[in-house]
Fold this sequence. Notes:
- By secondary structure, this protein is α/β, with parallel strands linked by helices.
- It has 2 domains: about 1-95, no CATH class; about 135-295, Nucleotidyltransferase, domain 5 (2-Layer Sandwich).
- It is built from 12 helices and 5 strands.
- Strand 1 (about 135-145) and strand 2 form a beta hairpin.
- Helix 5 (about 70-75) packs across helix 6 and helix 10 crosses helix 11.
- It starts with a helix and ends with a helix.
Amino acid sequence: MVDFIDVNKQEYGIEPICRVLPIAPSTYHRTKDLESYPEKRSLRSQHDDFYISEIKRIWQDSKCRYGARKVWQQMKAEGLKVARCTVERLMKQYGLQGVWRGKGKITTNSRDDQKRADDLVNRNFNARQPNQLWVADFTYIKTTSGWVYTAFIIDVFARAIVGWKVSNRMNTDMVMAALNQAIVDRNNPKDVIHHSDRGVQYLSIRYTDKMCDSGIIASVGTTGDSYDNALAETVNGLYKSEVIDYLKENWTGINDVELATLEWVDWFNKIRLHSTIGYVSPFEFEKRYYDNLILSGMAA
């Protein structure tokens, strides 16, 4: 209403407009006075101005994905002392909302007659160090030119995405590309447990031979049981919520999906706060692990 009065006061006058609108002339003048002299405002209002500017910066840096909880954690990490309820209040007031993860999953085909490895994980998605346990899965993206598929390999220790591939074909080549990237990115680690579901891509001879040749130990979950690969499906859910469902309504094809995935994986690994590892990024969590190893060695 104040903006409306500003626009029309020269033609109609402030008091005539206020008689029509539900606002007193004194309220209008008080508002304009505070705009000209912000130091007259209450301390809470002044603090709110500072906090909302920081909240908007952090929220926009996350590409509008963070909700109040993660915005608050990032503010704490930057040394900004603010109550979580204040962050929630201001985000609600200014219409800032994070991404909400949806539900639903399309399952892949599997073949019960194929020879498969045992389940070495048994839903225990924990690791004491990097390259102890990897989980693998892929998901579907509908585009205007047809279906596109994205495969991920995640290191369980810090939830880092160590391999990924976007493809327009749901085949062994797609998951092999993600596996090869993970092996190279992690400098050919040995005795890593690689856990997947029973999708035919992961049970193919080429894929299992590659794992064997690389010193990677295969683990396969129970058919049709989503909990047996829950961590990988969680990452798929985040990917769908924070990239596919959020950035665009219509994806044209593999090229724009691949570019968006590249940007998201880089942000996911280097910047995104993860609650399960103490609200730091995967790369920061791993760095702390290796720094502690060095300090322990020096102390010894």
